[in-house]
Amino acid sequence: CRAQGKSIMAIPRVSRSTMALALRAASRVQNMGARSMSSSWDAQFGSKVFTGAVADKYLKKQGESAALLSDPSWVETKADKVAAAVMEWGRDNEANVYTHWFQPLGANGVRHGMTGQVHNYFFTFGKDGKPNYKFDGETMVKGETDGSSYPNGGLRATHTAGGYTIIDPSSPIFIRGDTVHIPCVFISWTGHALDEKTPLLRAEQALNKEGTRFLKNLGYEVGGVQSNIGLEQEFFLVPRDAFARRLDLQMTGRTVIGRQAPRGQEMCDHYFAPLNQHALECIKAMQEEAFLLGIPLKTRHREVAPNQYEMAPYFGHCTSQIDQNLMAMQICDEVASRFGLACLFQEKPFAGINGSGKHNNWSLGTKEGINLLNANQIAKASGKKEIFPVLMAALVSAVDKHGDLMRSAIASPGNDFRLGACEAPPAIISTYLGESLTKFLDEFRKGTADNYAPPKKMLKSGVDIVPDFEVPAEDRNRTSPFPYGGHRFEFRAVGSAQNVSMVNTVLCAITADALREFSDKIEAGQKPVDVAKQALDKHWRVIFNGNGYDPAWKEEANKRGIWRIDNGVDAMGKLTDDKNVKLFGGLGIMSKEELAARRDVNYTHYVGMVEMEALALLDMLRQQIIPAMKEAALDCNSLEAAHKAVRKGLDAVHHEEDLAKKAQLARSLRLEIMDEARQACDAAEEICPAHLWPIATYKELLFLDQNQDANGATL
Q: Per residue in 225-241, pLDDT tens?
């Protein structure tokens, strides 16, 4: 970013030699740590989580065992003993600080780590000025803070600010650094949920109640029902020195301008390619830090776009899995900086190449460990072959009735640029079941089949030395927003920067509602199979096994009358529709006031994101791009016009008082006015001499492989 010896950038660029030295040093240090960890990772896995043998060692000194933690009632009956054990464990691990760790509303894609926390030492000071260690059950279970300083949608104000953090015993306590993290919910003085987790726990409670009731009505008694998830987390790793020369990336996580590099993903040469060696060392450090916290990030691989990667864990209970995902995202962000890289979670940080998602693999299980979406497993455990098709009928009905809520749950700012763009499913909510399951359910509703046995398919490679191999009964459909993949559904449209608590709140809620409706009818005298047949007949339209990217599907979906909401701001508003207020209220998950608060927080979050993007674009135009073009003696009229248009559009957003209208104006500014400004900027980049162009280019940001020295340092 130099022009005849004069810097246009406000941020000084780190020299290549300095950056190389820093990266090599970081790599050497991290490699030593990686070797140390890798040699004994199995012994250290979960060593910073207060469960199992780790907890048992300290609880035995209190006359208890780790089994105590499996019964949530300990928070009321034996909190003092657990607190004493936790403090001793923390001190033994050089953690003398504790925090109540929670998930504020509206933190998606903005707040570092997306959580709230205040740190306190375990000790107080006595009269002699010396520290006195004390940590009792009441202190561990409950904290108090200012509820008005977080996004709250009007539920709190400065003069009515009380907010309380209450321990969530379903998610384990853990240590990171010198701090013991205590997972919590966040509740206002009036009892309203101020966080993402409380509605999820309420929805899980409703699912447990209605799922257990439903199975009992089908002759199968279980200890409880829960949702389990596995999250495929995608992200980009880009050179931090280039990141530092992009105001838009720093402030918003997205490039609001940027001409395409000569190479993108045209050759399909990035997906599952060998990992870039510098990025690999960074990802290994991320995984190993996660392993200490019991986060099983088993899988790592390159994704479709250049510099794009994915990590994925094992399946687990949804509440603890979401906590782990949030901490994993924070770890990725922080570890990347130590390697001279920046980790980008925003759904569409670069135009012209694939963006990132967070595929939410979702299933239902009993407390005894039976997967209710595994036809063979549930039939064997229950002796009831009809449970699987009746349950599938309930889920099909839930998707058809409440596709608006599923669309609302994924209405994040970044998904504006991603849904339906041949990299993520369209904004049409349907479900893919595959040919064999669809055929079975069709026969089931017609009364000609009652037992689903997934067919086995064997393939031959045509090579004698390669053995024949079995493949799933169904092919993979990456264009469906909610495909069945054999034993699970995959909510593919979820954005990479999202906290998926609301996504899973919706899935649990609509499932509980469908199971409740089925149970009501069964208990009123109808046969379970007849209830399922009726539901399938009514909601069959939502099953679509074709290509979701086919333009003809949009027209067909409209004819079928299934949910299609292209506008993300419109989708946000669906939270407070009468049917959804009735759904959430009837299940005890969220009141009308809580739903309205979330809707307004989503509107505000969206407007805030667009405002930051617009202001970044205005600054880049006025302070960097226009001066560079003038120095090159090139025409700036189109850039001046773009600056004026964006400023006018932003002013219109600022002057609008109605929150919903404000969000719609912001959407128009983002997708129309700013897009036109981008075209003007990208055209300017094309003709501006490279040595005068003031910001990092896509070529500098996206190709670690082509910009490394012999030691793997990216220059």
A: 999 999 999 999 999 99
* Amino acid residing at 712: G
Burial of 690 (0-12, 13-18, 19+ CB in 10 A): exposed
Q: Within a 10 A sphere around the Cβ of 482, how many other Cβ atoms? A: 23
The three-class DSSP label of residue 334 is: helix
CA quadruple 408, 409, 410, 416: dihedral sign: positive
* 561 three-state secondary structure: coil
Q: Which two tokens stand for residue 622?
A: 């006025």
Residue that is written with structure tokens 């248009």 in the block: 645
Averaged pLDDT for residues 572-587: 98
287 CB-side CA count, 13 A = 23
High-pLDDT (> 70) share of the chain, % = 93
DSSP H or E stretch at residue 318? helix 318-338
Amino acid at site 203: A
Over the stretch 10-50, which tens digit does the pLDDT of each residue have?
A: 333 444 443 443 444 444 444 434 444 555 667 899 999 99
Mean pLDDT of 182-196: 96
Tokens 């200490």 belong to: 292
4 pLDDT above the threshold of 80? no
CA 34, 37, 42, 48 dihedral sign is negative
Please state, in angstroms and rounded to a whole number, the distance separating the CA atoms of residues 158 and 164: 15
DSSP 28-63: HHHHHHHHHHHTTHHHHTTTTBSSHHHHHHHHGGGT
For residue 421, the model assigns a pLDDT of 65
Cα 252 to Cα 610: distance, rounded to the nearest angstrom: 9
> In whole angstroms, what is the distance from residue 179 CA to residue 573 CA?
39
DSSP H/E element including 379 = helix 375-382
For residues 302 and 417, give the distance between their C-alpha atoms in angstroms, rounded to a whole number: 21
Give the pairing type, strands 297-302 and 308-313: antiparallel
Q: Which two tokens stand for residue 308?
A: 């794009």
